[in-house]
C-alpha cells in the first residue's frame, strides 16, 4: 500500500480533525478574543453534554442502529435528579447525602429506558428509528409530568459549586489553589483570577478514555463492530446478537442519564428540555467523527472531535455576533458533507491511487 494511498485514506477517515483545526484558525483570525485559554475551555464545556450522549450513540450507530430518545432521556433524568436532591434537602438531609441518594434512581431510569428500547429493537424486531422515536415522546412527556412543565430549581448551592469547579485557581504572582478559590479573595481581584481545567472536563475525558478501551480492546467492542458489519455472520460466529443489542441500547441511555446528571451540576437545576438540542447534535457528532450510518465503523475519538466541532461553531458564531440560527445550517451542511465522504470512502476508496 503506497504512502499516498495511506494519506488519502487518513484524510477521508479523519477529515473532521483537519476541519476542527481550520475552524479554530478561522475563528481565531476573525473573532476578537477567540484565541484564549478561557475560550477553549468554554468550547469544551459547551461540548460536554454532546460528548456524553455521543459516546453512547456511537455504540448504537456502529451496530447499524439509531437512538432518537437520548436527548429527552437526558432531560427526564435531570428532572428526577434535581427533584430528589431538592426534596431531600428540604427534608433536612445534607447536600452530600441528597446527591448520593439521587444518583441511584437517576441511573436506574436511564437504564430502564435503554432496556425498553433494546427489547423492542432486538426482540420485537421494531426498526430502531421507530422504537426510539416512541421512547423520545414517552421520556419527554414523563419529564414534563414529573416537573409540572417547569424547571426544577432551589437546589443546594453545593450542587452548582461542584459542577462549576476547576482543578486550578491562581492569581498571577500571588497564589495557586486547587479545586476551590481561597477564602477572603478581594472582589477587585476576582476578575484577575485564572481558572484552569474544569472538573466536568476531567470527568468526561476519563470516561471517554475508558470507553475508547472498551470499544477498541475488549470482546464487547469487537462484538459491537461485528454486529454492525453483519448480524447474520455474527450469529453464526456465536455472538448473542439480541442480548448484545440490548446492552448497547442500555449503554446509550446510561450515558444520556450521565448527561442529565452533568446538567444538574452545571446549572443547579433540572429541565425536561435539557437535552432537546443535544439529541441531533450527538448524532451529528458521531457522523462528523467518521461513523457510518450503515454500521460497522466509528470510534469514540471521532465522536469527541465531532462534538468539539459543534462546540467551536457555537462559541465562534456567538463571538462573531452571528445569529444562532446559522448554527443549525452550518451543522446540517457538515453532516451532509460527512455522509458524502462516508459514501465515497465506502464505495470508491479502493479506486483512489
**Which residues form runs of ≥5 with pLDDT under 50?**
348-353
CATH architecture: Orthogonal Bundle
**What is the H/E order?**
HHHHHHHEEEHHHHHHH
Tell me, what is the CATH class?
Mainly Alpha
* Number of alpha- plus pi-helical segments: 14
Assign the structural class, choosing from mainly alpha, mainly beta, alpha/beta, alpha+beta, or little secondary structure. mainly alpha
Helical residue percent band: 55-70%
Kindly identify the CATH topology. ABC transporter involved in vitamin B12 uptake, BtuC
Give average pLDDT, whole number: 88
**Radius of gyration (Å):** 21 Å
Strand order of the largest sheet: 2-1-3
Shape: globular
Give the number of domains.
1
- Sheet-strand content, in percent, reads under 5%
Q: Terminal Cα separation, in Å?
A: 10 Å
Count of extended strands: 3
The main pleated sheet reads as: 3 strands, antiparallel
Amino acid at each position: 500500500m503506497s504512502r499516498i494511498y495511506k494519506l488519502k485514506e487518513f484524510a477521508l477517515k479523519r477529515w473532521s480533525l483537519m476541519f476542527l483545526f481550520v475552524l479554530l484558525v478561522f475563528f481565531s483570525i476573525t473573532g476578537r478574543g477567540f484565541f484564549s485559554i478561557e475560550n477553549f475551555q468554554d468550547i469544551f464545556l459547551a461540548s460536554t453534554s454532546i460528548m456524553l450522549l455521543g459516546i453512547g450513540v456511537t455504540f448504537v450507530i456502529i451496530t447499524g442502529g439509531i437512538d432518537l430518545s437520548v436527548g429527552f432521556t437526558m432531560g427526564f433524568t435531570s428532572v428526577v435528579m434535581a427533584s430528589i436532591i431538592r426534596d431531600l434537602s428540604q427534608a433536612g438531609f445534607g447536600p452530600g447525602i441528597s446527591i448520593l441518594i439521587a444518583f441511584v434512581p437517576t441511573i436506574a431510569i436511564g437504564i430502564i429506558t435503554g432496556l425498553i428500547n433494546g427489547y423492542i429493537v432486538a426482540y420485537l424486531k421494531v426498526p430502531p428509528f421507530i422504537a426510539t422515536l416512541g421512547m423520545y415522546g414517552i421520556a419527554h412527556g414523563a419529564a414534563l409530568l414529573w416537573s409540572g412543565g417547569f424547571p426544577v430549581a432551589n437546589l443546594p448551592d453545593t450542587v452548582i459549586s461542584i459542577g462549576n469547579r476547576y482543578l486550578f485557581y491562581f492569581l498571577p504572582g500571588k497564589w495557586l489553589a486547587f479545586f476551590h478559590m481561597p477564602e477572603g479573595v478581594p472582589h477587585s481581584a476576582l476578575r484577575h483570577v485564572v481558572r484552569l481545567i474544569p472538573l466536568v472536563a476531567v470527568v468526561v475525558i476519563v470516561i471517554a478514555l475508558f470507553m475508547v478501551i472498551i470499544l477498541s480492546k475488549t470482546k464487547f467492542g469487537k462484538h459491537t463492530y461485528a454486529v454492525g458489519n453483519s448480524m447474520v455472520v455474527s450469529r453464526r460466529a456465536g455472538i448473542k446478537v439480541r442480548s448484545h443489542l440490548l446492552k448497547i441500547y442500555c449503554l446509550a441511555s446510561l450515558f444520556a442519564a450521565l448527561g442529565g446528571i452533568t446538567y444538574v451540576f452545571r446549572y443547579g437545576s433540572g429541565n425536561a428540555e435539557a437535552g432537546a438540542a443535544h439529541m441531533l447534535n450527538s448524532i451529528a457528532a458521531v457522523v462528523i467523527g467518521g461513523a457510518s450510518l450503515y454500521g460497522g465503523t466509528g470510534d469514540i475519538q471521532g465522536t469527541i472531535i465531532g462534538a468539539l466541532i459543534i462546540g467551536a461553531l457555537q462559541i465562534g458564531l456567538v463571538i462573531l455576533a452571528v445569529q444562532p440560527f446559522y448554527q443549525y445550517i452550518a451543522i446540517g451542511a457538515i453532516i451532509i458533507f460527512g455522509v458524502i465522504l462516508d459514501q465515497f470512502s465506502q464505495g470508491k476508496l479502493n479506486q483512489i491511487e
